[in-house]
Amino acid sequence: MGSQSYGSDANSASRNWGPNCYCGRATSIIKSWTNDNPGRRFIRCGVHGFVNWADEDKPYGWQKVSLLEARDEIRQLKDEMKVFKESVQATNEQGLTDMNSVLVNKDEQEKYQLENEVKACNEREKLLRQFIVLSWGSFILVIAMILAMGKK
Ligand SMILES: [Zn+2]
Predict the structure, then answer these.
(1) Per-residue pLDDT averaged across 15-32, rounded?
(2) How far is Cα 51 from Cα 38, in angstroms, rounded to an integer?
(3) What's the CA-to-centroid distance between 23 and ligand 1, angstroms?
(4) Distance from Cα 37 to the centre of ligand 1, integer Å
(5) Which residue spans adopt a coiled-coil conformation according to this UniProt entry (predicted)?
(6) Between 67 and which of 39, 133, 146, 151 could a Cys-Cys bridge form, CB atoms 3.0 to 4.6 Å apart?
(7) Taking the domains of the chain in order of start, what are their residue ranges?
């Protein structure tokens, strides 16, 4: 039971550990994708690199050919995905800068509108003051005229 649960743990791990290297370090099992050995697993040490093949048989025949074809197709797809991702990223960045310039313009517009409103407010206040002064002035003028007429 104990060994079984250990086995399932090892399977669920994302990394495949190989037997220890001759230097004593832990190794990992990696798939080779070279032209000579497509899909053939090998033991790799973090220090020494290639240690030994994990799969004894070399790939050959139609299996080797189809593995190489699959490898090239995957590489091509990866390249296409990369180009696609880059273009999406570029589009997003372009979109962001557009948004920013719109926001800046909106800010500028609001500022301009606010300034205009403040100016208009000041104008109205000035007019109102002038109107009050004028009406007071004319009122006093009328009173003075009435007083002058009464004196006669
Ligand atoms: Zn080593």
Answers:
(1) 90
(2) 17
(3) 4
(4) 22
(5) 67-124
(6) 39
(7) 1-59
